[in-house]
Fold this sequence. Notes:
This protein is α/β, with parallel strands linked by helices and 267 residues long. It contains eleven helices and 13 strands.
Amino acid sequence: MIRILFASAVLFFVQINTATANQVRLAVTSSFHNSGLSDHLIPHVETDLKLDIQLVVVGTGQAIKLGQNGDVDAILVHSKPDEEEFVKTGFAKHRRQIMFNEYVILGPSTDPANIRLANSLLDAFRRLSKVKTNFVSRGDLSGTHKKEIEIWKKINFKPEKYGKNYLSVGSNMGKAINIAVAFNAYILSDKATWLNHKNKGNLIIQFEGDQLLHNQYSFLPISKKRHSHIKSKLVEKIEDWLVSEKSKNLINSYIIENKQVFTFNAN
């Protein structure tokens, strides 16, 4: 049965001492869980492979740290530069693309920054930079937070200039959206999590569809050369399953509000 931990790296380290022979520790991003895809996908993996998968739900930055420390057997994350560096430095055997979804900008229905009129993502963020309005940032070095930072840099704007209107909350995607709802603020979110989120308040999708909003998820098995206790053979079975036809069908058939929210693209 799938077990889910929302834990810090230190707390999780205590958990690994009780791991059983068929248990695999997998660190995944909060958006993978908050979107509901983990509940749709992981039980099939466990049943088909007869495994006990322990999910550790964290941001990409923390997932990578868990992998570096050998506290998990594999990670499923979405920040390509960090993933490539992780492989380059020998912490993972390789990086395997699995699926993608899309980032969107959520904002108040009144849209004080008029980003719904933007002709590109960079135009949308330029509009945000010129209006004194609330903006919530994950602030946790997750893949979503790093994507946000990347966009601000592309328009040469430091969001700290917002002052108290820039709310860096250090929270997972679901909690960050709740804060954005409470403050009637703009926020960058993955679309799947937003559609699956129950507390929408006065927020709606104000911008989507730009090529820069592509959000790729990849699977990285931790190298046994770095950490000899890693269950590499079980991880190989999981990876083979994730790139299988069954996985493709399950990922592509995951529907929220009559919309396909993830697209399988394993290579």
